[in-house]
Amino acid sequence: MIPDFNISSVLPPYVGEDGPAQPHSASPYVATMSGVVLRFGTSSARLEILLGLLNYRKALRDQGIESGFQWLDGSFVENVEETRGRPPGDIDVVTFFKRPLGHIDDTSFAEFVKTNMNLFNPLELKTAFRCDAYAVDLDTDPEYLVGDTSYWYGLFSHQRDSFLWKGMVRVDLSSDDEHAQELVEYKLATEYPPSAPCNPPVEV
Amino acid sequence: MLSKLKIDALKADLAAVENLLGTRSPLRDPVGFHQLATRKTVIQSELQSIESREENHANIGVFFGGIPVFGSRGIRADFATKAIDHFQDIVAKSLAKLELGQLAAKGPVPLKNNAHLMITDVARGSFGFILEEIAENSEALETPLSQVVEGVAELIQKITSETQSDFDETTESLDGRLLVSLKQFFQLMDDHGATLRLVGKHRTQELTQGLIRIARERIDSMEISEVIPDPIVGELFLLPSMRRFELHKIPGGEIIKGTVTTQCLKSLEDRSIGISNAVVGKPWTVQIQTRTVKEKNRPDRSSHTLIALVAPHESS
Question: What is the pTM of this model?
Answer without folding.
Answer: 0.74
